[in-house]
Amino acid sequence: MAAVCGYNVSVMTGCSPAINGKQVKADVRDHLFISYAWEDQVFAKWLALRLTAEGYKVWIDQMKLLGGESWPSDIDEAIKGRTFRMLGLLSRHSINKDNPKKERTLALGIAKQPGRKGFLIPINVDGLPPTDLDWLTSDLTFIPFSQSWAQGLQQLLKLLDREGCPRGDVDEGRSIAARIAASSELIREEPESLVSNMCRFTSVPAMMHAYRVQPKLEYGSNALRDARRDWGFHPLSPHRVLAFHPPPADLGTWLRVERAQSYRWAELDEIEGVLPHTAVSRTLRGVIEAELARRGFTWSGAAEGYVVPGAHGKMVRVTLPSGKTTNVKLSGERTFFRVGQPKQLYHYRTAVKVFIEHADDGYRAVFRLQYDLTEPSGESLPPTQRNSRRKHLTRGWRNYEWMVRHLAVIQLITGESGTLSSGTGPQDTVAFNCEPIVFTAGVSIDEENVKAAPELSDEEADATPADDDDDHDFEDADDGGEADDES
Q1: Which of these, 220, 262, 258, lies nearest to 238 by C-alpha position?
Q2: Which pLDDT value is given to residue 481?
């Protein structure tokens, strides 16, 4: 008798298994069986833990989960007699591998038996197109996880509930999943500082003003675009905007502005039909976007963000939270190829999209990195190529690489002062600090034990020469040594 995650489990040949000392019938179908390829193990383990946390009994090799053996000795019998549904993870890795194919074939055979319809639940892990599916699964409706794991999980949970999948105690399942996650060799019982992509506004004026403007600032017009380059505001209509302060004098050469009304926004339920926090958030975003334009960032519709200025391939110096510095390249070129196709050179430039978040301690700016991907001629890549090129560009980046690039962009916005301010005086000035918000986690990840992620597919490879210094996009500024791993 062995204890498995709090359950006493025994498997005896010719006998029914005993769980928690109670005999159960051998044909009780109460497990979910996850069929996957090794290359998809990160997603498979995540899915297993999430399902366990919802109270489901899960079979997946390498892990001992809620109410089930670590791995059945007779897989075929376990699938036939103890499995309620098989979750077949479909990906470029699993579609042609022998074991996943055998398991899916068995599941489809079971699905033809009376009362076993829908036994196989196909899950599309990486956006595998229907044309690449084998003939056995091409007619099935799969649950997509390639765009959002969270949305895919919600669809799967709804399906399992609708199908009446047996489910145990949720609180116990969550406790078990938490213990399994915490026992991972990747987790250390030491606190860790987490540098975020958020910065605080240190000053937000108490008063917001409505201004009448001439000429009209119509949506999509050059006038609206030009006004937003110099002034942070939220348009209510072509003739009326909300702002914390009047526009700079330079804008007054062509835009006539008259204050119409003032509001103490924190005391109101709405401001001219707009929720106060919405008005404040949109105006604060306008302040930052005006500063982006002033510093030479340009909007890219293809990247859905503001593209960093500067010469192509130029290194940017970054100050880390430790006070040390490093250099990072925010633009450059890469070579992409698929087997049997010619190599394709593409250019990339880092872009940023700004969001405003309201929290208990005030307003925060959230910076999300985007990428402007073009042909060497400068022409935007077609939408069908952008996603694969972005994955190609960023697939080797971990927390440190992303952190440094976020810091580089934020510091480009604020300049050497590290602050941003907009206003005419102390009462109407918006102020922003480039120092990122740092959180502390109770446990930390042992980076030395993190295995390198598998390649995206056998058909995609990075053709960038490893020894070509001109094509490196990350190096240290301190005497050419390795950058300090501060994250």
Answers
A1: 220
A2: 31
Which of left, alpha, beta for 370 (phi over 0: left; psi -120 to 50: alpha)?
Answer: beta
DSSP per-residue string spanning 405-453: HHHHHHHHHHTTTTEEEESSSTTT-EEEEEEEEEEEESSEE-GGGPPPP
How many helices and strands, by DSSP H and E, does the chain display?
9, 27
**Tokens 């979910």, residue?**
32
In 3D space, the residue among 395, 414, 412, 415 whose CA is nearest the CA of residue 404 turns out to be: 412
Closest by CA to 39, choosing from 459, 460, 455, 462, is 455
- In this prediction, residue 447 carries a pLDDT of 67
Rounded Cα distance between 293 and 308, Å, is 10
Please give the pLDDT value at position 453: 44
Instruction: Please check whether residue 54 is in contact with residue 170, taking contact to mean a CB–CB distance below 8 angstroms.
Output: yes
Class of 27-183 per CATH? alpha beta
For residues 349 and 8, give the distance between their C-alpha atoms in angstroms, rounded to a whole number: 56
Domain with CATH 3.40.50.10140 in the chain: 27-183
Q: Say what the pLDDT of residue 169 is.
A: 86
Spatial contact of 354 and 285, defined as CB atoms under 8 Å apart:
yes
Please give the pLDDT value at position 391.
Answer: 86
Among 481, 479, 476, 436, residue whose Cα is nearest residue 329: 476
* Global pTM value: 0.63
* Beta-sheet pairing, 305-307 with 143-144: unpaired
Rounded CA gap, 149 and 76, in Å? Answer: 29
CA-wise closest residue to 296 among 312, 315, 309, 311: 309
Contact 329, 468 (CB under 8 A): no
Query: 104: which DSSP letter?
Result: H
Q: How far apart are the first and last CA of the chain?
A: 45
Q: Looking at residue 251, what DSSP letter applies? A: G
| pLDDT (tens digit per residue) in 72-123 | 666 788 888 889 999 999 998 888 888 888 898 999 999 999 989 999 999 9
Token representation of residue 83 = 């499995």
The pLDDT score that the predictor gives to residue 449 is 60
Helix (H) / strand (E) containing 228 = helix 222-230
pLDDT of residue 436: 94
Contact between 128 and 95 (Cβ < 8 Å)? yes
Q: What is the pLDDT of residue 22?
A: 40
The residue type of 389 is R
Q: Which residues pair with 86 in a beta bridge?
A: 33, 120
Q: Residue 2 pairs with which residues in a beta bridge?
A: 9
For the chain, list residues with pLDDT below 70. Answer: 1-27, 62-74, 135-136, 138, 181-186, 447-487
The answer to whether the beta carbons of residues 178 and 8 sit under 8 Å apart is no
* pLDDT in the model for residue 384: 84
Residue 334 forms beta bridges with which residues? Answer: 346
